[in-house]
Amino acid sequence: MSQKFDVELTINNGVASVKLAGRMDEDMDLEKIKAVSEPQVNFDFKEVESINSCGIRDWINFLGEIPKSHGIIYKNCPQVIIEQMNMVKGFLPSNSKIESFFAPFFCEACEHEEKILLTPEQINDKKAPHDISCPKCSSVGMDFDAIAAQYFHFLD
Amino acid sequence: MEHSTYYDHDYSPVFVLDKEFNVTYFNGLAGTFLKLSPRKINGKDIKELIPLPESLWHDLKSQALSLGSVGVSSETDFLYLGDSFSFVFRLQNNGDEFLLFCNDLSVEKKLHIKYQKQVELLKESHNQLLQADKVRAIGELTAGISHEINNPLTVASGNTEILGFSLEEEDLNAQRELITSCVDNLDESLGRINEIISGMKGFLHQGQGDKKEYINLDDVIKAAVKLTSSTLKEYNIDLKFNASNGQSVVLGNQTKLEQIVINLIQNSADGIKQKGQSDGLIEIFLGKSSSGHYQTLSVVDNGAGIESKDIPKIFDSFFTTKEMGDGTGLGLSICKKIAEDHQGDLEFENSNNGARFTLKLPVIEVSSYASNDEFFSKINDVDGRKVLVVDNDATILNLCQKIFESTKYIFIGSTGGAEALDVLQKYEVDLIITDLNMPGIDGRTFVRKLRESNGSVPVFYLSSENGLKTYDADKVDLNLSGILLKPFKTEQLVNLLNKAFSNS
Domain A1-99 belongs to what topology? Predict the structure, then answer.
């Protein structure tokens, strides 16, 4: 069972940094960040464990309340968030940008699985980078462990 | 077939399986649900991936045996990676492969359970509010009630003292008259105290549930007046009420309706006090709305009324015009809610001299029909026979309703001939049981009018033995089916209904 939703907000020099954690579902309370009026909002999804259809609906409604002139940055997006971005229109509004995201990799040498943090710049033509080193056995060239064309669809 | 073309953007997990149930393709949502990489899904046995009982897979497969046939599971709950899911599975036989569609109802189910819990909590809170309001009302009445108890207590105490002196006399026989008088006075005084305490206890503790039965509004008003009489006496307020003599029967909860009337009387008393009116007057009227659909109970006073700016807010929770500490602001909102729970309403208007609150409750012909609405949905046309019982006695209607609950028949109650004719204008019924002696249009006249308007529905008289002669005189003329003699047992009524319907 994953942990309850939590949100942490810090504001510094016109930038609101929002750390999200736990389950994004029908119990998700975004009141704390609804009043944010900073022109730049950075969302850190690193600790988000799951998201269901209610969480998606509430999140998209919340994004709709942020003025289009404001900038939105997504960082440390875990696989569950990337999968929703690929499926649901509106998860990535036009004024948003992805700074970093996690992608699943597998080491054939030692069979270790690892979620590696990537930036959009590392993805070319919807193909995963080939030079990822295994953090366990240090072999270079971990295999991407999902269907690349599907997984990197959000970068179109 | 290029499966990705069809299913990649489906917002539910889809798997393509070979004849041995091994996965040959899965869409994005399937991977998201399983939280596994493609290398751990492709080629694997679906039964190992989704932990379901073997019998479910077997049932699905046996339903989807032939080409094009589809097997559908019932809603299936299971645990996967520590989370609970609710899926409906659909297995489609495509000849050389199976398509497995997983309809994920987990969110809907969780929301439904949460919603049910919240509704229960709301109901509980509402009941607590109702109880709190009753305690508040009793609290406000306590001073007056204490005074009311003090009077008979003083009489009782004085008479006990006299009895004591009398018993000291040598010739007790000579004191007999005095002793008898003292005992009578004691009995009367203690009886009065008991009556007051019983009224309070009844108001506070009876009918905690939502149970509705046929009640006479005369009784509701009398009970409320009894509890508020000391307050009225204290402020020298006169209360006028002409009982309807059983003409105002409704389907309701006695305690909750008493709560409304007590609140309204107390509000009126407060309004009169606020105005400083020396000849305070509260009048209670019973009647019917112009449409005839509602029984009305109006409480009218010659107090201060309510300022027009406050009128839109008077039924809001926590709104009060009283001084801090004098009112919770919940009384009227609770009363309104109780009225709405009875499919009625509570309305306000300033009368010429003060305030007028009108409680509207559906006439029993409408409410008894509506209260069977749930029953209606459960039955088919054959079993759902509707029986109209016409009797001005609420206890008979309550008894019949209770008996009908254990049968497949639908009970519709009516308190008089005129009301029953009105019901028959709106609803079709399959059988009528009518009392003979009723105020207004009696049973005979009712059936005669019914037959004159070509109503051919079977009719039974409901009467004491005295009605047998009337029945004999009318049975051919009015095409009567029979008579049920009072008092009757459950079995008699049920047998009568079963026989009547088996003949038709």
Answer: Transcription Regulator spoIIAA (3.30.750)
